[in-house]
Amino acid sequence: MLLLGSAVIFVGLGQLMVLLVGGIDLSVGAVVGLTAVLLSFFISREGAAGGPLIGFAVIAAAGVAVGLVNAALVRRVGLSPVIATLSTFIMIQGLALLLRSSPGGTYDRAIVDALTTSIGPLPIAFAIAVALAMAAEVTLRRTRFGIGLRAVGSDETRAFRLGAPVTALHVAAYVGCAAFAVLGGVMLGSQVAIGDARLGADYTLVSITAVVLGG
Question: pTM of the prediction?
């Protein structure tokens, strides 16, 4: 349960960044699924396409790309966050299903064991997730970046007049959200140990719920 909880924490932290700037990201569930699918090609026990290092580099790049696309659709094209990220969700989900129309590519057991390593009853991934949450709280309250996120979400026009880099903060929020969704996808994928495009279907609503319940 703690391992599953770590996935929720990762995705929730990402969603929090976007909600703080007054947006929303409906594509996180699809990013989770795409992450699990992409990993299945690189850490599959049936034969990896390029090895785990290349695999993790690919999913990191995919996360950054998704975040940049979402930010561009919202800030440059002028779409509402709901429409922009829903469009991205559809595209990402379609790509994941194109790559894996049905679950496949069982993960290498050694890599799964490494991702789910525990110290006693405490999974290392959960400890990392909690540490990141604590660091995020400090960042939100004590740094210029965190205060800027809050300021933009509270009143974008006033924040801009006070010198906040509004567009840059939106880009950082969407890229950060996608990056955290990738981390959530890695953890969730390690639980099922197979590439499944539908794996993160429920995590969009779960991430929003986590942030709202957290205040």
Answer: 0.92
